[in-house]
User: Fold this.
Amino acid sequence: MKILIVEDEKELRETLAASLIKEEYLVETASDFHAALEKISVYDYDCILLDIMLPGGNGLQLLEVLKSEHKSDNVIIISAKDSLDDKLKGLELGADDYLTKPFHIAELNARIKAVLRRKQQQGRNALEMGQVVLDLNERQLFIKEIPVPVNRKEFDILYYFLLNKNRLVSKNALAEHVWGDNTDQADNFDFIYSQIKNLRKKFLVAEAGIDFEAVYGIGYKLIEK
Amino acid sequence: MKLANQSLKYLSLSVLLVIALWSTVFYLFMLEVIHDNIDEELENQKRVIIQKLSEDDAILAVSEFGISNYQVHEIPKEKAMLMRNTYQDTMLYMQDEDDPEPELEPVRMLVTAFEHQGRFYELTIINSMIEESDLIKNLFYSVVILFFLLVISIVSINKIVLQRLLNPLYSFLEQLTKFRLGEMSNKPTIDTKIQEFRDLQQAVATLIRHNEETYEQQKQFIGNASHELQTPLAIMINKLEMIAEKGNLQKEQAVATGEVLDMAERLARLNKSLLLLTKIENKQFFDNKTVSIDQVVHQHASELADAATFKDVKINITEGSRLEVNMDPALAHMMVANLLRNALFHNMPKGTIAVQIAENMIEIRNTSTYPPLDTKRMFSRFYKSETSSSGTGLGLAIVKAICNLYGFAISYAYEVQQHSFRIHFHVE
Assistant:
């Protein structure tokens, strides 16, 4: 999988690149409009992270170029501007998603995977890890092919972790994902802890072969045992 | 106190003063004239008496004021030579026609001396001054009447003239009280030829313009500042996440990293909420559609269902009628979600959230052990009740801003362990 990061801020570009390399993607970066234009006209990418405000031009112009080549459907716009206009225009130009800075690495991973999954369109729309299969169409959890009942939020949480296998998911990222954006109460973690505890029990009972590993009160990693 | 009444107060006080002063001077002057008159009269009488004396000696025998108003006493020559005409005010017992007994009455008295056939006499003539006290009384009454007449006419003239003069000012004031910075309302105008009022309008217009400029700049500043913070925050959060993920940290370092991460997240949330508020206040949401509030409520209630079960809180939704509102769907969701989340997170075990949807209104009522919110400050930015934890303190401010944007009326009420928020959608 080849991913292009178009972002002028060096620190952010490098951090994102480091994180994506961990996911075993091939990562290339561009720091300004012209470098990006050169790369997209020469190579094909599975996913492009595109900042809108760039030195030398506007990210939306790049998107127009991509659209004219029918390659704009794998673009995730990452912008500091939570502007409705930009968002609408970006999505109109075929961008797949719009992510406002600052975002969690876990959230970016989830969004990238969504783009890649849509491109691949494998037969069964499911995520797997260890003995666990999460069926996304049926919203159903299978452990060793036996259905295990989960509530809505347990499903959401597990889904998020499966998109971030072996990665740290911070409790804030989780809260934002579970409670939705614009939450003023992201510090209400009791409920999330209890959901994770429930899932853990279910994994243990059914010998799922995976477990949550707590990371010093920062968050959890979903790991294979 | 109204300007008209205030001016009336000062006017009547000063009129009272002027009239009092004037009547004193007038009285003294009148008194002087009367005295002159009486003295002249006394002088005349003296002449008449002395003239009569040449025909009738009987006058010399009148030694008491009786029916006549004079008395004569013989005095030694030396004393007579020293005497001049002297006038004086004094009191004497006198019996008028209508008096049953003699009464002490003020009189004007002339004491003089004359010679008759080589002998010297002292002549005292008196003249009653009853008229004078009557005069004072009359003068006083007329002054009082004059005062009231003046005050009444001043009141009515004041009413009519000031009303007419101040009408433009009152209408200007009314416009000014309705004027809100940042709203597209008309600037207050004053329709008059009075220079001072025109100057006032000019001054107010200048003031408003300055304020509007400052207001705009401030709004933009908040927007720009929050916006510029986004990228550094993104870098901070993502770097910290990467550090924490590496897993080669000492426990202490990891915990500290987590704490810093928490703070960065809080900053990011705060920043996002501020940006959102600014956008709502700048009216950057115009994607208005017909939104079914019922649907929005049901969606968020089911989102929160698991958490509600966990917190042992029941959510009851009563739909009196279907409620549809024309507004931006994202804002409708935000408004309902904020209120519902608040209702859940501030609830108590075995508590309830009662959502009532009526024709034109939605009410969200929740049980809670928290004390009532401070109604004066609850909707202002960064308000947190003492019991609140690390929320941004912007949730209710956002709800309020959305209501303001669309002209909805939001109200809050507290009964025993029950907090309720009510939004009326179409306010007449």
Observations:
- The two ends of chain A are 26 Å apart (CA to CA).
